[in-house]
Amino acid sequence: MHNYLDLKIWQRSRELVKLIYKMTESFPKSQQFSLVNQMQRPAVSIPSNIAEGAGRNSDRELIHFLDIANGSAFELETQLFLSFDLGYMNNEELDVLVSELKEIQKMIYKFRNNINEALDA
């Protein structure tokens, strides 16, 4: 078991959730139950799955939940591009959020690989 509270990846993904919630506040009300909801769910899913995996009894289970968190990160990335395409965010906002999301994706990948290497040793 890992203490998820100490994981930088969990802390950073929590910050991303705040950024997504703040950014989607400016979306049209007509998107509240469609695109806004579709963006908030995977954003919340990233730190939630990291925490759930860290609380499991095996590193193999943690890897499984890291894979789910990573899938949510890619889902959110697609929704960021769609939001830009629809004119709900500008290029600067897109760049900041995608850059942060890419860093989180890299952290998930590295953490997952480190755990996997330890299991194979």
Task: Give an account of the 3D structure.
The protein has 121 residues and is an all-alpha fold. The protein has one domain: Up-down Bundle (de novo design (two linked rop proteins)), CATH 1.20.1440. Helix content is 78%, strand content 0%. It is built from 4 helices and no strands.
Salient structural properties:
mainly alpha, 4 helices, elongated, de novo design (two linked rop proteins), 121 residues, single chain
Give a summary of the structure in a few sentences.
The chain is mostly helical and 121 residues long. 78% of the residues lie in helices and 0% in strands.
Instruction: Compute the separation of the termini in Å.
Output: 18 Å
Q: What is the CATH superfamily?
A: 23S rRNA-intervening sequence
Q: Please state the second-level CATH architecture.
A: Up-down Bundle
Tally of domains: 1
Q: What fold name stands as the CATH topology?
A: de novo design (two linked rop proteins)
Estimated radius of gyration: 15 Å
Shape designation? elongated
Helix amount: over 70%
Specify the number of helices: 4
Instruction: Give the class from helix and strand content and strand pairing.
Output: mainly alpha
Order of helices and strands: HHHH
Largest sheet: none
Topology, number of strands: 0
- Beta percentage is under 5%
For the record, what CATH class applies?
Mainly Alpha
Q: Any low-confidence stretches, pLDDT <50, length ≥5?
A: none
**Overall mean pLDDT score?**
95
